[in-house]
Design a protein that fits this description.
Layout (H helix, E strand, L loop, with lengths): L1 E9 L3 H19 L2 E6 L4 H7 L5 H8 L3 E6 L14 H11 L2 E9 L12 H4 L3 E7 L10 E5 L5 E5 L5 H16 L4 E6 L5 H14 L6 E6 H10 L6 E4 L1 H12 L9 E6 L5 E4 L16 H13 L4 H16 L5 H4 L7 H13 L8
Parallel strand pairs: 1-2, 1-3, 3-12, 5-10, 8-9, 8-10
Antiparallel strand pairs: 4-5, 4-11, 6-7, 11-12
Helix pairs in contact: 1-10, 1-13, 6-7, 8-9, 10-11, 11-13
């Protein structure tokens, strides 16, 4: 198989973890006789520094010319004082909008070998395996108006608008139901329908979409209760579908069930079939260049890319099995080591690559 992958390293630890994921993909190509072509593009702060634009047209063109996209991370204090149109995060929001990446999938699965890394007791995280489906191109992050101004009395004010079309809600909720139908058959739709009109529309649409999936159970949950339930009884969830900001917050909360943001991959899906994959974590500029970054989330994002964009189930499973094998061997990055001895980003990557190339990877997990 010959496929083209656009690589967007971004900022901070983004280039390091993306290099790890790319090296793993090269090992997959070697073991399974595939050919992956890679084309790099600038995004975020790196693009601002070079092009005075967080998402240059060349990057968009490279993405549209690819079969899948793999991104590192964007942002950092270097650009914190920039105007809003020159913030690194603007590049991320723009690429989501331009490529219509409407559904963000964030699987939350606790690795048995990492159960001691979670801040929760083991009995609370046993059998935790769910997916958060977050709407990605609407809501508070994209609503207009969004501005700061001085009112007639000389006081500063700010407004952000939470805006959704029914069609935007419908397509992401339907994505959640499709996933649940292939999993454990339960959708938890998270909203704030007791307060927000947009959430009341969200709940109505969820009820309508549920009629198309009679074998899938739908439950509604207010976002504040969902935040509590993620800690109190996380194994109750199968597929959680919610709007943009709620999904952003809840998925970061859920990441701590696994012990670290550095373990969670994600996929951003488009209706065209051109999908983007990235680790959930941020750019962590304080550890950039020190070999301390956790590459597992980026590597697992590459596994999601293989499965979701290319239909390569065996290859994706080989990557996931390799990660399991390395973790089971006791190897840990700094964020997982809890003050004990840890392995560098590159050392972990080499361990995963070696496990992939081993013919008996699966039997050793």
């Amino acid at each position: 198989m010959k496929k083209r992958i656009a690589l967007l390293p971004g900022d901070g630890i983004g280039p390091e973890v993306l290099e790890s994921a790319t090296d793993v993909l090269k090992s997959v190509a070697e073991r399974f006789n595939h050919e992956f072509e890679f084309e790099y593009g600038l995004i975020g702060g790196a693009a601002i520094d070079e092009h005075h634009n967080p998402l240059p047209e060349e990057t968009v063109a490279a993405c549209k010319n690819a079969d899948a996209i793999l991104l590192g991370a964007v942002g950092g204090p270097k650009w914190d004082q920039n105007p809003s149109e020159l913030r690194p995060e603007k590049g991320l929001l723009s690429i989501r909008k331009q490529l219509d990446l409407f559904a963000n999938l964030r699987p939350v699965k606790v690795f048995e070998s990492l159960s001691d890394a979670s801040p929760l007791k083991k009995e609370y995280i046993d059998n935790v395996d769910f997916v958060i489906v977050r709407e990605l191109t609407g809501g508070l992050y994209f609503g207009q108006p969004s501005k700061r101004y001085v009112n007639t009395e000389g006081e500063q004010e700010a407004v952000d608008t939470l805006f959704y079309k029914r069609t935007e809600i419908e397509r992401v909720i339907r994505e959640g139901f499709k996933m649940a139908a292939a999993r454990k058959g339960k959708v938890t739709s998270v909203d704030k329908a007791n307060v927000l009109e947009s959430s009341r529309l969200w709940r109505e649409v969820a009820e309508d979409v549920a009629k198309e999936f009679p074998d899938v159970k739908l439950e509604h949950m207010l976002v504040d209760n969902a935040a509590m339930q993620l800690i109190y009884a996380p194994n109750q969830f199968d597929v959680v579908v919610t709007e943009n900001m709620f999904g952003d917050i809840l998925s970061d909360e859920a990441s701590m069930l696994t012990g670290s943001l550095g373990m969670l991959p994600s996929a951003s899906l488009s209706s065209s079939g051109l999908h983007l994959f990235e680790p959930v974590h941020g750019s962590a500029p304080d550890i950039a260049g020190k070999g301390m970054a956790n590459p597992f989330a980026a590597i697992l994002s590459a596994a999601m890319l293989l499965r979701t964009s290319f239909g390569l189930e065996e290859e994706a499973k080989a990557v996931e099995d390799a990660v399991n094998k390395v973790l089971a061997s006791g190897k840990r990055t700094r964020d997982l080591a809890r003050g004990e001895e840890f392995s560098s980003t590159q050392a972990i990557t080499e361990e995963v690559k070696a496990a992939i190339m081993s013919e008996n990877t699966m039997s050793n997990v």
